[in-house]
Design goal:
Elements (H helix, E strand, L loop, with lengths): L7 E5 L4 H13 L2 E6 L2 H15 L3 E5 L5 H13 L3 E6 L14 H29 L2 E6 L12 H21 L4 E6 L8 H5 L14 H13 L4 E2 L6 H15 L9 H9 L1
Parallel strand pairs: 1-2, 1-4, 2-3, 4-5, 5-6, 6-7
Helix pairs in contact: 1-2, 1-7, 3-4, 4-5
Length: 269
């Protein structure tokens, strides 16, 4: 047990996989925990193990974040519990099948969880942390946010949303004492792949990172002050180059006249 008290961390999707490992690691760092997921039985098992091994207080909240009442319940906790200093926005799911071969209702649920629920929780935490002058929000994105052709397009788009939101929130909230980090895992050995329809055992095994290693790398990135952490990226300078090029390009959009290639086409017409 650690005597350090860093406040309370809220982890969504905490009943298994990445979320459960985040809960374990954060408790060992000195956080009390609020664990959120749909399965009360699985949450109770995770909570019991973490509390026994770390001595931290661990509370569970069974909630389906695609249910508006359940989502509002978690938002209210984030707004009113002044001990909360960290949110890990981890709940989400994906699909590996092509866009036109994936059920639209399934993709709609993906949007609701990966985008709407995550945004509402980030908003609630962002408001509360800004008022208190401190706090950290960790949003779990994916390398699919950048490598959009890898998996289902809606999944990739949802994770691109998470990346963009996190970068914007970081810029907006940093002077209010709020840190925001986007974590972009690559292929990670979790149940995610079973739900997505492509078990990770079917992937090249030199691509697949242990979930413990992914979370430890993400927490190391947070400690280093990174806004964007990509655990499988071997050279961090590659991200700096990519993001620098993006920012440089964005400075070239301030023109009231269309690009010459469009004017030439229009004149010819």
């Amino acid at each position: 047990m650690t005597d350090t008290n860093k406040g309370t961390a809220v982890v969504t999707g905490a009943s298994s996989g990445i979320g459960a490992i985040y809960a374990d690691r954060l408790a060992r760092q000195g956080y009390d925990m609020i664990l959120v997921a749909r399965s009360r039985d699985k949450l109770d098992a995770v909570a019991k193990r973490i509390a026994t091994e770390t001595g931290r207080y661990v509370h569970v909240l069974a909630a389906d974040l695609n249910d508006r009442q359940d989502l509002e319940k978690i938002e209210q906790v984030l707004r009113t519990d002044s001990t909360i200093t960290l949110l890990v926005n981890n709940a989400g799911f994906g699909a590996a099948s092509p866009f036109l071969q994936t059920d639209m209702d399934w993709m709609g649920q993906m949007i609701d969880l990966n985008i709407t629920a995550l945004t509402r929780l980030a908003y609630a935490a962002g408001q509360a942390f800004s008022e208190r002058g401190k706090g950290t929000i960790v949003n779990i994105s994916s390398i699919a946010a950048i490598a959009s052709e890898l998996l289902n397009g809606v999944y990739s788009a949802s994770k691109a949303f998470v990346l963009t939101l996190s970068q914007s929130m970081s810029k907006e909230l940093s002077d209010k004492g709020v840190r925001v980090q986007a974590v972009l895992p690559g292929a990670t050995a979790t149940e995610f792949w079973d739900v997505a329809g492509l078990p990770h055992a079917n992937l090249p095994q030199d691509w697949v990172m242990r979930s413990e290693d992914m979370v430890d790398a993400a927490l190391a990135g947070l400690e280093l002050g990174e806004v964007v952490t990509i655990p499988p990226l071997q050279d961090g300078a590659d991200w700096a180059t990519f993001d620098g090029a993006r920012q440089e390009l964005s400075g070239k959009f301030r023109h009231k006249i269309p690009g010459g290639r469009y004017l030439t086409t229009r004149s010819a017409a």
